[in-house]
Amino acid sequence: MEPLWFQTFGSCNLQRVGTILQRGVLILLLACCPCWAILINTEVILLAVKQEPEVARMAQLYVKIFMPALPGIIWPEVITGLVVNLINALLNYIFIFLLNMGLAGSAIANALSQASLAMILYCYIIWKGLHKATWAGWSKACLQDWGSYINLAISSMAMMCIEMWTYEIGGFLAGLINEVELGAQSVIFQLANIAIVFPLGFSIAGNIRVGNSLGAKNTEQARLSAKSATLCAVSISICLATVIGASKDYIAYLFTNDEQIRKRVAEVASFYPPFIIFDAISTTVGGIMRGAGKQKVGAICNILGYYGLGLPMGTSLMFAAKLGITGLWISLLTCMFLQTSFLMSYMLRLNWKKITEEAQIRVGNVTEPMDDSEDSQDLDETEEAALMPNREQMSHRSLVLRRGLVLALMLLILAFGIVLNLTIMKLIT
């Protein structure tokens, strides 16, 4: 949704922003079905990768309760986020300690917090009337042109999720070695989550500013926004890397008092600071590329980097070379260096004039490139298909048939996941 939404808003085609939102809501609600089909089988999946039965059972309990929570103006989000965090802490205290509900109580509290966040934001939008310029009510247009949305969404999802999935897989692999390795991996993973928050903010800012500028045909502002976001991310990441590097022998005490885990964390943290810098640059440039509609390049880079190099190399170093999580993070550092080098090189060579033309096609302001130059005509067929918002509209009958089939397929996948879970759990017990 990001490039479509931000670029369309920047072009002042405000009514179309509401249509894109409607389309996104419908598609994401349908996407919950296959996600739920997988989450329902969490226990089965964890048992298959040799996790402890009790851990698998508790994870399944948490996921089942938390499943309902799956589904330019920044300060309201910041304030509501702070308020909901306070609500979340209070609800966790009530359900876990006062009601003695344990893990299930935590899941209920977190699910209620997510619902509270959505409700507070909705009430704020209605109160301030922020929707009036972009929301004209539900329209049949939201059922049209799902292909371009999904084409961009899959690439964006891959860019954002592959790194996170790699860390989670690393946790599974560490758990296969011993508890110390798993504990140390968990600490490093939490440090990574903390370190990425700051550059993630610049990534989002760059995404929005670049998208709005391209939609408004302000090529120079888009280029300047990309540079500013990257420089800010590099600056803050250097500070974070310095702090973590200087405190590597003690930082584990924030999470555990176990001396073995602390020593293991210190060993990995000795070469972790460069990873923070590369990761910050990669994250920020990734946001800029999503704002420019170039997420497909970032997605391919992430897939090849993490799954083509990072994980295979990390697994070999962890087990064959017996380096444990040190081997995993050496491979991830290598992977991140190569990815960052490629993405920075790609961004510096972007033809911003051509990207502005593509943005105008994407938001529906023009139906063909503004410039007949050779640079403006070398879009490949897939990319061009994703850019065209004014393609021939489907008939009412065809629309009902196709969207009905999509709904039926998603529900069938969910039903299959439920049946599979019931069958396997019956065989196990």
Short overview:
The chain has 429 residues and is mainly alpha-helical. The chain has helices at 2-10, 14-39, 42-48, 53-66, 75-98, 102-128, 146-175, 179-215, 219-246, 259-269, 272-291, 295-320, 325-348, 352-362, 381-387, 396-428.
Q: Secondary-structure element order, as H and E?
A: HHHHHHHHHHHHHHHH
Structural class: mainly alpha
Runs in which pLDDT lies below 50 for 5 or more consecutive residues are 369-389
Percent strand equals under 5%
User: How many beta-strand runs?
Assistant: 0
List the total number of helices. Answer: 16
What can be said about the biggest beta sheet?
none
Shape: globular
Q: What is the CA-atom radius of gyration, in angstroms?
A: 23 Å
Task: Please characterize this protein's 3D structure.
The protein has a domain at 147-363 and 380-390. Helix content is 78%, strand content 0%. It contains 16 helices and no strands. It has helices at residues 2-10, 14-39, 42-48, 53-66, 75-98, 102-128, 146-175, 179-215, 219-246, 259-269, 272-291, 295-320, 325-348, 352-362, 381-387, 396-428. Helix 3 packs antiparallel against helix 4 and helix 8 packs antiparallel against helix 9 (219-246). The protein is globular, with a radius of gyration of 23 Å.
Task: Please supply descriptive tags for the structure shown above.
429 residues, mainly alpha, 16 helices, globular, antiporter activity, xenobiotic transmembrane transporter activity
